[in-house]
């Protein structure tokens, strides 16, 4: 079994072939600071090399899955080429490493899921949401392009019409609606969420491993094709937004919990 002791904000517990991953910053709604963002980019290759793991389940500590990028991390990146480059590299690694992990991943979306946290939730092979979970991509509300996962997965999950609506407006949708439009695999009550996720994980952990992994590998060819066109392109366009004025206003508005007044819309 691998040693996961170096992870600070990602708690890893392995039992009966299932790795339970918990994003563990509950006081900030599991927002992704620089360390957690890095850990979410590295955990998937580590799980892939661990013979004790056959399936992974990821969720958030407390009442949230993940509230997206930590405000301090975003502020540090504005106008900072080095920080933007690091974030872009890690955002790409989160997506590509999840796609390239042959072992199945299940997300248990227990509350709000935004930004980088939502990337992990939706790139999971099976996504299970609490009916009252609150989901939004959030990038456009911040003032940057939807870049860290949206272009690669939303159109495949819920179709281009719904993807454009929710990515352009940043409207929230709950778990029930996310299931209705095909954005998540299923929605259940909050009380049933973890038992359901663990039950599905157990079925996969006791199933034919080569068949399961090869099926995932074949299906993910769709994502690999999009990865080198739409996704990588979207990452670059998102990064450009960190050098404009809109993101400064978007971040201020989020901090102050008010509607933004973007300079480009004046």
CATH class: Alpha Beta
Q: Please provide the ordered H/E string of secondary-structure elements.
A: EEHEHHEEHEEHHHEHEHHHH
Output the number of helix runs.
Answer: 12
Q: Quick one: biggest sheet?
A: 6 strands, mixed
Which fold name is given in CATH as the topology?
Answer: 2-enoyl-CoA Hydratase, Chain A, domain 1
What does this structure look like?
The structure is a single chain. It is globular and about 60 Å long. Helices cover 52% and strands 14% of the residues. The protein has a single domain, classed as Alpha-Beta Complex (2-enoyl-CoA Hydratase, Chain A, domain 1). The longest helix is centred in the middle third of the chain and has 20 residues, at 81-100. It has helices at 34-48, 71-77, 81-100, 115-123, 139-142, 150-158, 160-169, 175-180, 190-205, 209-219, 221-240, 246-256, and strands at residues 10-15, 18-23, 55-60, 105-109, 113-114, 126-130, 134-136, 173-174, 186-188. It is α/β, with parallel strands linked by helices.
């Amino acid at each position: 079994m691998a040693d996961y002791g170096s992870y600070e904000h990602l708690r890893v517990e392995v039992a009966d072939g299932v790795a339970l991953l918990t994003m563990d910053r509950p006081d900030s709604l599991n927002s992704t600071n620089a360390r957690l963002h890095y850990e979410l980019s590295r955990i998937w290759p580590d799980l892939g090399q661990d013979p004790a793991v056959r399936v992974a389940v990821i969720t958030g500590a407390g009442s949230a899955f993940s509230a997206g990028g930590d405000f301090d991390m975003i502020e540090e990146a504005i106008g900072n080429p080095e920080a933007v480059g690091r974030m872009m590299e890690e955002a790409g690694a989160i997506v590509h490493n999840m796609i390239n992990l042959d072992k199945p991943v299940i997300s248990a979306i227990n509350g709000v899921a935004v930004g980088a946290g939502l990337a992990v939730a939706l790139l999971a092979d099976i996504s299970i949401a609490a009916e009252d979970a609150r989901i939004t991509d959030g990038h456009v509300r911040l003032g940057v392009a939807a870049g860290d996962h949206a272009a690669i997965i939303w159109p495949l999950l819920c179709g281009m019409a719904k993807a454009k609506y929710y990515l352009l407006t940043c409207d929230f949708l709950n778990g029930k609606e996310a299931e209705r439009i095909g954005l998540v695999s299923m929605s259940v009550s909050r009380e049933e969420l973890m038992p359901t996720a663990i039950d599905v994980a157990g079925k996969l952990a006791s199933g034919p491993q080569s068949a399961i992994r090869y099926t995932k590998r074949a299906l993910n060819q769709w994502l690999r094709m999009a990865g080198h066109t739409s996704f990588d392109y979207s990452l670059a366009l998102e990064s450009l937004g960190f050098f404009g004025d809109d993101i400064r206003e978007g971040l201020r508005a989020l901090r102050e919990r008010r509607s933004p007044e973007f300079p480009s819309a004046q």
